[in-house]
Amino acid sequence: MKNKKSFNIRFKTNICNPIFMSLLILGVIEPSGILDMSEMYGGIWRIIHLPFTLLLYFSLLFCIIILFSNSTKRVDLFSILIVLFWGWTIFTNVINGHGFWESTFFSFKVLVGISILRYYLLNDYLEEYVAVFHFWMVVFVVINVITQLVYPNGLYVGATLSGMWFFGNRNAFIFFYYMGIMFATLHYLTKYKKLKFSYFLYIALLVFSEIIGGSVTSGISIIVTVLMIVFLRNIKTSKYKICGISMIVSIILSYLIISFGVNTSIARVMEMYLNRTVKFTGRTTIWNTALQLLEGHQFMGLGWAEIPVNWNWDVYQCHNNYLDLIFTGGIILLIIYFALVYVAIRRLDAKEKNISHAILAFLFVGYTIVYIAEARRKEVGIFLLLAMMYYSKYFNKRIV
Predict the structure, then answer these.
(1) Contact, 309 vs 285, CB < 8 A?
(2) Across the chain, how many H-helices and E-strands are there?
(3) Torsion over CA: 216, 248, 242, 363 (sign)
(4) How far apart are CA 183 and CA 123, in angstroms?
């Protein structure tokens, strides 16, 4: 028994090492541009992609080991819903004859990412985990901005013939950046007990990246989210109600905008009398095509199918999160997603002053804003945010 105890102590010491944590994290947060370039060009980019893949499998092995250890509770409602979400996503890809390996591989990233977060949180190492995660997000953001400045038209050309950089297409930036904001905010308020100048410099870099990438709207959403964090983080209002209301508003606006956008008679009136375009940067065509393809498949969905926009352009998401969930897995997947969100936000404090819960709630509000006009099937950040909410009751006193 004595030898076993000393082994456990050494094991716990090793897993807190920043290098070991980095090995676990990097496979989960591989920049999408590396994966895209490895698939399109191969060669050197496939060599760069390979270490991230190997690290993901290393992390998966670590998760299997801790799954069968006695140090953590094995099953909870959130874990069940996550497995259901990705299990159904994989199943819809199988029955529709495409996307099986792609969705399976990415489900590993999400499940592994959540398992690692959960392990460090339950074992009282969240502060160290957040610090390492924040470090790598800063490194990746700096690299992405450099590629934007050096290659303003794109580091490479993607399938949609639009410029892409280290984080992939400019529409993907915001999802990486919200993940970066979450870990940066928790890191600064935990370690320094305040948001230092370097924090705002980091946020300014994110906004600058969005603006030069051509997405002023995403830049504004980042500013709004950070302003809420800065000025309202001491709020005593119910955090889960803030999340619930923002999601309901997001769903209603999504329905109205999509219905409005695909209604050609309303569009003609707008363009004729108000001199306003309602094309939403091509999104109306995508929404209309997606809705047509969904006819007869509303219950099960079509998996990760491509959406043909014209003769030489296919897109890989519906540019609205809720529509994309229905497109992927039908009403069933949408219900699982709502259940996942509900069990996560219900863990947030009702009225007490809780800074960490307020930060998580405001980040979720930011996601609901972005989800009106964007979606991303290969996205880790929102699931890490929901996991952080669900397991927030285990935050120790060092966490804000």
Answers:
(1) yes
(2) 16, 5
(3) negative
(4) 18
State the pTM of this model.
0.90
Instruction: Sort 103 into a burial class: Cβ within 10 Å, 0-12 / 13-18 / 19+.
Output: buried
How many Cα atoms within 13 Å fall on the side-chain side of residue 153?
2
Q: Tokens 């489900």, residue?
A: 107
pLDDT at 6: 38
Query: What integer pLDDT is reported at residue 71 of this predicted model?
Result: 55
Q: Which residues contact 335 (CB under 8 A, 6 or more apart)?
A: none
Q: Is 303 left (phi over 0), alpha (psi -120 to 50) or beta?
A: left
Residue 124 confidence (pLDDT): 86
| Residue 212: C-alpha distances to residues 138, 173, 340, 383 (Å) | 18, 12, 35, 28
Residue 386 CA, distance from chain mean position: 10
The tokens describing 131, both together, are 């610090």
Residue 106: closest CA among 28, 164, 25, 26: 28
The pLDDT tens digits of the residues spanning 329-366 come to 999 999 999 999 999 999 987 656 678 899 999 999 99
Give the three-state DSSP class for 165.
strand
**What is the distance between the alpha carbons of residues 282 and 265, in angstroms, rounded to a whole number?**
17
User: In the numeric block, which tokens belong to residue 308?
Assistant: 């043909």
- Calculate ∠ Cα 227-230-231, nearest 5°: 85
Summarised one tens digit per residue, pLDDT across range 267-296 is 454 444 444 444 555 788 889 899 999 999
How do the domains of the chain map onto residue ranges?
2-232
Which distant-in-sequence residues (6+ apart) come within 8 Å of 118 by Cβ? 72, 387, 391
Q: Which residues have a Cβ under 8 Å from the Cβ of 188 and sit 6 or more positions away? A: 194, 195, 196, 199
**Does residue 395 contact residue 120 with C-beta atoms inside 8 Å?**
no
